[in-house]
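FAQ
Q: What does a multi-component entry look like?
A: The components come first, one per line:
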Amino acid sequence: MLLIMDNKRTRSGGRSGGVPGIRRRIGSRLGRCGIALGLAAAGFVACSGGTAGASGKVTISIWEGYTTTEAKTFSHLVKQYEKAHPNVTVSVLYVNNTDTLTKVQTALAGGTPPDIAYIFGSWAPNVAQMSQVVNLTKVVKRPGVHWDDFFVGERDVATVGKRVVGIPALVDNLAVVYNKTLFQQAHLAFPTPNWTWNQFEADAATLTDHAKKQFGTAYVTPQSEDAVWHWEVLLWEAGGHLLTRGDKAAAFDSPAGLRTLNLLRQMAVVQHSVYLDPTDMEYTNIFNSGKIGMLVTGPWDLASFPNVHYGVQIMPSFPGSSGGHQTISGPDNWVIFNNGASHVSAAEKFVLWLTAPAQVKYFSLHTGDLPIRSSVANSSGFLQQMNAKLPGVSAFVQNLKNVKQARPQIPSYSRISTVLANMVISVLVGSAMPKQALETASQKVDQILQSGSSG
Amino acid sequence: MSVARSRRAASEHLTGWAFVTPATLVIGLFGAAPIVWSIVLSFQHASFGPGGKFAGLSNYRELVHDPTVRQAMENTLVYTAAFVPLTMIVGLGLAVAMNRKIRFISVYRTAAYVTMAVSTINEALIFLWLFDPTYGIVNWFTGLFGLPAQPWLNSPHEALAVIVVMTVWGWTGFAVIIYLAALQGIPQTVLDAATMDGASGWATFRRVTVPLLSPASLFLAVWLTINALQLFDEVFVTTQGGPVGATTVIVYYIFQQGFQYFNLGYASAIALILLIITLLVTAIQFRVGRRYVHYRS
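Then the predicted structure of the entire assembly, as tokens:
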């Protein structure tokens, strides 16, 4: 029970941020194995250039929300850094990720912000409004940083307007995890990289057996961002856009938008092939019990499926659409606050070291988190090593190249998200028709964008 | 008045103040000050941190026209109207059943109260499972009688009802304890007198017991109403206000505005309206209650 509660807590945390990413940290089994991954100590020498500030000793404070394996791995890296930089002390404080933004804002008001904080990517627009946030635009252009090595979805979320406000800290994405046994029993071919939503829909219908309480797929129904980003990816694949260029008005009340909601309605209301999960968490247990054929989910869920022989395939595409097989990602950032030049300098050096390829690789291999740099994803033997620890995760690593765009980087996104959640769920539960749901939501989003006010 | 006496009186005053000052300070600092601050915020366009701009009455004007505020008010009132009487009736029924000398009575009483001790998270998880549309026991049970499976939390029409059932279960133990204590305070002689006058069991209950329980009933009605108007935890853990706003209650909307949209000024304005509504409802309950509450002399 404790585990479930813990799980739920971080989960609801992810949701209540308005937010993205659904940070469900499964203390992934990787680290627990305690296997030395044979990373040469040389890996850490990558930081050799970074010496401590000339002015003597400096202590930088960092707020992060890591738990279990991630916490252990992070603390190991911090110790490594301190050993290599005797003049720098890194003071680490655990802050639940859900609370970080409000706590940082309170600390800013009190004049004592941390030097570095782990902040959800969806809050980047709010972060950009804070006066003490360090502008990293020039920092990421420094030689050796290789900003382009970070995936485009991450860079988009770390950038507000043209200003870089954070360095990527984490990335994930959505793909389809399917139960191979159920596919074989139904005499269905496994999904291929060029599959379509028509196939997905047909497979879901075939895999559904109400007598056995078995469903083709699942969708979560609480009024949260989790229900929204699963739909946004559909919209992009259908070739649609959420907002017009410049984020001035809603753009999803379009043929593409209609196509996505029609698909959801067809599956959920007409064919009843979707398990609608009001808990936003039981779907993992039900999939693990072999009662769900396909899940659109991220790498964080894989460790919850020990009983299922599963495969992972990239997202399907809509036939005839330019959107292709793209996916969506919910990256988070390290944000640096100005506590004086020596602190800023030390904080920048630490974050750049932490997000350098050697450390990224170490962190991924120990935690199962996807690598935030493409050079790490492409490094030889990396995928095999990841997969050996967490089967299927390599497909998510490769899927990172299918991240083509980010959600709108505007402070009112969390309010738009609530409107979109209502729109999607109203179609899924059959209380609204797609066209009408799109129109209503589109009007509301326009109002939010125009007023910039609360209601 | 002699000098000695007035000195003694003054020192008694001082002693009195010395006793109450620490508590007053704590309540002032952590109770009154935040309320005053949120009143100030409600007249500002404010987020976290410094830099709130004075906004006059604009937050209040806005909430009058905000359809979500209206929906949240309606949901809150419907919830309160269902939750308060149901909890009292179920609590009274159980209390009467337990107000007798039978074997294992203390076990039953403990069992009834246990619902109060269960944390909201556990309570919510249990009910999520019970009411799961596909795998839940509730649909399985009603299915035995040939009733169609219901979507429960996935339905805009049924989700609030599930929250009502969940919270009635959670608060019943509290009502049972209050009613049990009140029942045990009713003198046996009064009940015996009713029996001797030829009153049936039901008549005794209706004409003697229920009126004598009225102080407890008033207390419960007020207490449960205040809690119902502030419903939040169960919604936060289960539906997050959905589906389609069906369980967005006032405090959940305040949370959304304050901690998801960072409109602290607007959230404070709604919170202040809720405070006023709560005070009004409570005042009405006391006023109406005065007519029906009978205290034993």
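Q: Is there any commentary attached?
A: Sometimes. For this entry: The mean pLDDT of chain A is 87.
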